[in-house]
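Protein modeling request. Please complete all fields; requests missing the sequence field cannot be processed.
Requester role: graduate student
Desired output: 3D structure, token encoding
Chains: 1
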Amino acid sequence: MNFKAPWIDNLVAMVDLRIQQFSAIIETKTKDNVFVKIPVNVQYFIIPDGVENAYYKLSNPKAQIESYVYNVILGHVPGMILDDVFLKQSEIAVDVKTQLEHRCGRSAMAFRRC
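Delivered output (114 residues):
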């Protein structure tokens, strides 16, 4: 028998389980004093079993994702010359993904592509 008692069970919030996307263009300076604009797209979704963790442990997921992405990009690119930025593009993307998974928690969110 299933029923809902309104004085015991209540709905806190609706959480979207679809794939969402964060997009940004990060402007930074390389080691050889060249300004570059790096487009970043991160696709993420909330794992159905981790809805509670995603809602209660992450206060503002999009802002937190943006902060982590900026930290990783601005940590790598200023120490590289322009040619290395283009050559190591996939390494930077992998590092962004691993940092996001580590910071946001693998039990709450998953990241598909950076």
